[in-house]
Amino acid sequence: MRTSKFATAPLAFEDDAEAEVARLEKLREDDPIALQDAVNTSRALVDAVKDNDIDELRRVVANADEGEFIQAFILQAFVLALKASLLEITQQLVDWGVPLHNPQLSQALHLVCELVDRDNFSNSWRIVKSLTDGNLEGSLDINAPRHSDGWTPLCIACADACLPMAFKLLELKADPNTITRANETPLALAKRSRDDDSEEQKEARGIISNMLRSYGGQDTCKDALRMLRKTSQSSAPSQSQALKEEVVTVPATSSQSRTRYRG
Fold first, then answer.
1. How many helices (H) and strands (E) does the chain have?
2. pLDDT value, residue 241
3. 3-class SS of residue 135
4. Cys staple from 140: which of 36, 131, 165, 183, with CB 3.0 to 4.6 Å?
5. What CATH architecture applies to the domain 106-263?
């Protein structure tokens, strides 16, 4: 019998890695057959993703019992889907409750932007949207900095002169004035040419730079911070007024990269 949570989100899990190890160890001692079933089911999940077989993936999940999916295999399957830009499978895994807040998936958006190219762009930006829309377990922040260098997905798109991805990220509310660990802005990264830039990419750098400026993007971290202060100051009165109106109307009873993209 499936619980309501497992029926709607069969790939969701809340336990940390140590708790999962303890669970599997207990299975090994108490019911090794059940452990082998879990391994087999989890491997089948991964294999279906590797084969890009959405029908087999759905069959595996439909036939699984609660507790049969091992966390490490769930994460492996999800990363494989991201690396292969498998849109339908990624969306299905998200719908099934893959915990996007898991630390091993914290750089998922960055990974997608690193691997985008002309052939997979249509899938890639939709995967980005799926990850930011999230599920009942949470979603990914489009402005989350990468641990190593403080780059956001927008920084990656700008540095690679990936015009279509930069455009989509800005549409999805990416911050044009994020500041990296090296005190650089997306605009500064977009303007920095690379020796192997194609003519199309050289042109794209100019277009991206103008687009960032139209969104208020600044060249330097000092200008970006100044813009942030100005924005904060200008929004404070409107927020205060909105709070007053809310109070009045209340009834009395009542969160550096190198990629493959070549333009």
1. 13, 0
2. 53
3. strand
4. 131
5. Alpha Horseshoe (1.25)
CA atoms within 13 A on the CB side of 136: 12
CA-nearest of 90, 88, 64 to 77 is 90
- The string of pLDDT tens digits covering residues 239-249 is 545 544 444 43
In residues, how long is the chain? 263
Q: Per DSSP, what are the bridge partners of residue 221?
A: none
Q: How is the chain split into domains, by residue range?
A: 1-99, 106-263
C-alpha 168/C-alpha 51 separation (Å) is 29
For 142-180, the pLDDT digits (tens) are 999 999 999 999 999 999 999 999 999 999 999 999 999
Where does residue 95 rank: exposed (0-12), middle (13-18), buried (19+ CB within 10 A)?
A: middle
User: Which two tokens mark 111?
Assistant: 């990974």
Structure confidence at residue 263 as a pLDDT band (50, 70, 90): low
